Amino acid sequence: MTDLTALKYTDEHEWVALSGDVATVGITDYAADKLGDVVFVDLPSVGSAVTAGDVCGEIESTKSVGELYAPLSGEVVEINDDVVADPASVNGNAFDAWLVKIRVDPAAVEALMDRAAYVALTGGEA
Fold it and tell me: Which residues are annotated with the PTM N6-lipoyllysine (predicted)?
């Protein structure tokens, strides 16, 4: 099980786990629940540059289409091909179904929300 307090969060409902200078990014269970059944995931290409706050992908569900925002600026070093092949895995456990890994400035991660701030953002539903 993922230690949710060890992660950082964005107001776009993404979680970030930092290991060295690589940030693993996914959407939260809260976001996955609001989206409904995920049927398609479009992720940025490995090697592409992403900019914090900009759209870098798309998540489609039976209810809506959601944009994936880059939580940090950097270079995409890996995408989760398993999620692309089986988008519904995001609904199983969004914290296990990471989406992208981005090489970042580790100091930038500190500006993201901690778990308590994210829970407050969602009104305690996270």
Answer: 63
